[in-house]
Design a protein that fits this description.
alpha+beta, Alpha-Beta Plaits, Pseudouridine synthase, 4-stranded antiparallel beta sheet, 6 helices
Amino acid sequence: MERLQKIIAQSGFCSRRKAEEYIQKGLVTVNGQKVTQLGLKFNYDDQIMIDGHCLENKEEKEYYLLYKPRGVVTTVSDEFNRPKVVDFIPTKTRIYPVGRLDYDTTGLLLLTNDGELTNILTHPSNKIEKIYTAKVKGIISSEEFMKIKKGLKIDNRLVKVTYLKIKKIDKVKETTTISIGIMEGRNHIVKRLFKSLNHEVLKLKRETLAFLNLQGLKSGEYRSLSIKEVKKLYALK
């Protein structure tokens, strides 16, 4: 169940603030009953009428896991006509990416038309773990490793690391490959974390999101999520 104004807003009918105005003016009914009180919760399948218009919220939900390639934008449209993540999935449904990966970042990305699940997976309070593999310039010292593990401040906010393991040190090319797990989604946060220690990220790949991984997929390939997986994602709230 979810607050009525949120259900209306997620359907695309109007903004949440406008939905609250409709409710307070007595213009919204749920299953034939007028609702004027804000904050009441209903199901997404309830019949909702707004000023005589039936809320269309019955669209079949679709869920995809994409192995995002490098050089692809995480958007549904692009003014420079660059390859987009939605181009890899042949569906007539208007799906959109859950969160984002940078243009040069590869790895696991979810796409869906389910606004409620998107909110669950992107809201900071739910603390969804994401594990990345980063190839960085320079050799990460033991001292730097411990600094990352204890947590570094970026913009005066601590970045808490849930997982950290050095996978490879190439002394010839002077690079370090390291796995790092975080539970936040600030823009470029992994790159900025290593930059704060003067290590440029040369390659970055998202390996996991919660319990999901890229097993069985090659770059550019995708698969649909199972009903069981979708339910487990909802349970992360």
